[in-house]
Description:
Layout: H1 8-40, H2 46-54, H3 64-78, E1 82-89, H4 94-109, H5 113-128, E2 130-139, E3 147-153, E4 160-162, E5 176-184, H6 185-191, E6 218-237, E7 242-244, E8 258-274, E9 279-285, E10 292-296, E11 298-302, E12 305-309, H7 311-335, E13 340-342, H8 352-356, E14 382-384, H9 391-408, H10 413-417, H11 423-435, H12 438-462, E15 468-473, E16 479-484, E17 486-491, E18 498-503, E19 510-516, H13 521-538, H14 541-552, H15 559-568, H16 583-639, H17 644-671, H18 677-699
Antiparallel strand pairs: 1-19, 2-3, 2-10, 4-5, 5-6, 6-7, 6-8, 8-9, 11-12, 13-14, 15-16, 17-18
Amino acid sequence: MADQDEPRGLIDKAIAFLRLCEEVDSENRREALEDIRFRDGMQWPAEIQNSRQLEQRPCLTINKVDAYVTQVENQQRQQRPRIKVDPVGGQATKKVSEVIQGLIRHIENNRGGGDLAYDNGFSGAATAGVGYWRILADYCRDDSFEQDLYLAPVENQFSVYFDPSSVWPDGSDAEECLITEMMPKHTFRRMYPDADDGANFNQSGTGDTYQNWINKEEIRVAEYYRIERTKVDLIELSDGSTFWADKPPPMLPPGIQPTRKRPAWRRQLKWFKLTALEVLEKRDMPGKYIPVVPVYGKTSVIDGKRKRKGLVRNARDPARMYNFWRTAMTESVALAPKAKWLIAEGQDEGHENEWAQANISAKPVLRYVPTDLNGTPAPPPQRIQPEPPPQGVMVAAASIGEDLSAVLGIIDPAMRIGGNVSGKALNAEKQQSDNATFNFYDNTTRSIAQTGRILLDLIPYYYKEPGRIVRILGDDGKAKNVALNEQNPSPGPETPGPVEQVINDVTVGEYAVVMDTGPGFNTKRQEAVTAMLPLVERNEKLMDIAGDLIFRNMDFPGADVIADRLAAANPLAQIDESAEIPPQVQMKIKQQEQVIQQLQQQLQAAGLEIKHRAGIQQMKEEGATRREMIKTTAQIHIEDQENIAWARDTDVQAQTALSVAEINAVRDLLKTKVNNEHDMKTLDRTIESEEKDVAAAIKQ
């Protein structure tokens, strides 16, 4: 597995780089290790602790430092900075930027490494002044060639040797980095059976060059990131594109000519896994940044040396003093004599056991002899109270506790301004306390922004497969699958034939990282509900417009179902924010569609009304025609003197039957338009009146 042809100079560079980091950063590392131990509870100096243990004296540790640092860490967990992506130039679009942003959220959530990496890095910075996390890639499955990016925490910050010449707070200017591990030789032989484990290595014969790399039981295995620069001319073409002089395109398009050139340095990131004896693996890596991100605490430059520290550094002395005075107070109380009884000699005669256990038993009575040993009357026994603990010790312990809070800048608002205060005053004091440690949160925001830039640089390489289906996450944490770099044939506006249009192409365009800080999505959602409910109470129409948004921000079971039903009845809720059409234009279109739908319903109702009226009119005309025919027929029969009576009866029956049929038809038509019982009763009374009028007319 080892590369026998790798120049020895590369290993020498890695060894020299490790030695340089140890020389430049040795004091920071020593102090950082002391900070971690101190936060863990090792707060007494070793020599004082040993001497007190020899004297069997207590060494109490009241670890307030860990509680304070944990409070700062939890504030960061509640308000995590979030990466946002904006299009900058080239073929970048807003829609693709949202896809990339959702993909970055997936990468942060992949394997659960994002939150763990950020929390671990912030904890290292708050405790010891520096923490790290990494961006790695691995195959999605064992049987796949597709790779996924993910974030990984660096649990031991002392295993990272970061470029000491890096000065940017996010580490973006670093050009070298070592991540090392002291591996047992039996484990090393199992992982690299063909590699040299240094079994025949004689350290004494080679000086101290390898003393930190190989010992009898272990061997150091290091991942070595290195940016190599090559000086090459950069050539620009007349269409604005560029290429390196040593890698020219095979053929230039017609009419395209070189316009200018300049000398430039081409960066290439390289990765090696090596020991002090050989290179085990090597690879050219994509991207222009080292995928190791530092997060720093407080940084200062003193006498040309860069010093880093966290919250613990300044709190060590006040915490030691607090432990000492609390131990002294406890010791003075514990060693103080118990309350004694003053009695005359002979007063405990016959009750010796009761008086011997007077300070350790809870007997209700103590009996004594009222005379002394000589039989002389003696006063009752008296209890002698011991001296109270020294008042100075109590005052010193309380004042040292205040010093510790002042050094850390974390003060309980209620204790500072008293108990009877308003909530607004408490929030103002809490904000002042949060501002004292905001620099740690702000430094983490810079490091997460650098993580976003690294991911933007790597996504076009690791997610370049056409049509690849990936999982992306929205602001609300909901996941969906999208296809990347998908070829979609569609007619162009100027091209007569079909052209290939790439959908969600993440391999082109320029994008920038913008950080979104403040409360997380869940906190903002709860605040939104609190703000919207009073507005709905004052304006009931707002529920018809934004009711789905109100319920979607609520947490009770079934809130999403109610929101979906309200959204289905609200055309404005159907706006697709991921579409190319701006949301404002979509909203206007939806409003116009709603107006058109209402007009169509009104037109349809008017058409039915006209149809009903036309039907009634036609029926009246047909009735009149039939009456005229009946009258004519009846007149003919009346002329026949022999059938006058019969003709009259026939005419009356026919007229009555026709009128009843006409009235029933009108009633059936009108019933289709009458929807309530009151109108039906009115209609019935109208029809009865018409029937009576018709009958009266016939009789006449």
